[in-house]
Amino acid sequence: MSIKSRGRCGPALCGAIIGLALGALAAPASAGPTERDYLARLVKAGPAELQAAREAGRKASFFCANCHGETGLSKYGEVPNLAGQNPVYVLNQIDAFLAGKRKDAFMEGLMRVLNAREKTDIAVFYAAQAATPAVPVAGQRAAEGREHFMRNCFRCHGEDARGGENFPRLAGQQADYLRRSLNRYLKSSAERTYPPMTAAVTVLGEQNIEAVVAYLSSLK
Ligand code: HEC
Ligand code: HEC
Fold first, then answer.
1. pTM metric for this prediction
2. Could you say which of 3.30.390.50, 3.30.70.380, 1.10.760.10, 1.10.260.40 is the CATH number of the domain covering 142-217?
3. Taking all residues of the chain, what is their mean pLDDT, rounded to a whole number?
4. Alpha carbon of 217 to those of 8, 72, 164, 175, 191: distances in Å?
């Protein structure tokens, strides 16, 4: 990738710039070890090897930093934080973008330029970064949101909303992003569909989305 700019560009502008660059690139051949192979190796590896992978991930994520922030704390409300996110979840989402199961024209194109090693290094780098609440002071409806969360969401996302391999961390996530994602699931929009989430948000009720967003975005 020939884009070296570390300057600030908004999601739309960055998307346009890199979209042009991507047009010239062919998808890399996918022979050799997969992300899962690399991740499995890292899980068994010693701390030095893991640290080296995180360092490589920090470097490989220089372009991601334009939107997701230097340490995975995003710069824009509609861009998700990746700090503290589970690496397996992150790799699964990258695959979903590539497979067109999750639709975002920009992310889909960008993921094509990363090889399996880079994806894995980036995922373990972000996983090791400290997550901080997107909203430092809990909004008025946070307490109410907690009740809804404990009733409808915690069995998958965990009591502390920190998720796991198959469930995203939600604690501290950007409020705009949470709001938009929940509405997408509610409406089974083409960008992102996952029936169990549609069921959960339907039970939650559209009128309670704001309360849950206030709660989750203020968690550590
Ligand atoms: C131009 C801004 C931009 C850049 C640069 C960017 N992203 Fe994203 N990324 C987004 C947006 C916006 C979304 C949310 C898309 C959606 O709503 O589905 C996203 C979503 C993601 C997600 C899903 C997170 C979740 O919580 O489900 C992952 C993983 C991700 N990006 C990884 C990366 C990586 C790795 C890079 C660098 C190689 C990168 N992104 C570069 C804007 C960007
Ligand atoms: C049956 C298990 C389950 C339940 C219950 C559940 N979720 Fe989820 N949730 C998931 C899974 C799995 C995903 C990732 C799905 C995908 O890949 O699109 C997800 C994704 C999300 C996302 C997108 C996060 C991101 O980083 O992109 C949000 C926000 C979310 N859930 C919030 C909630 C809330 C709020 C509730 C309760 C009203 C809830 N979930 C209930 C399993 C669940």
1. 0.91
2. 1.10.760.10
3. 89
4. 24, 15, 18, 5, 22
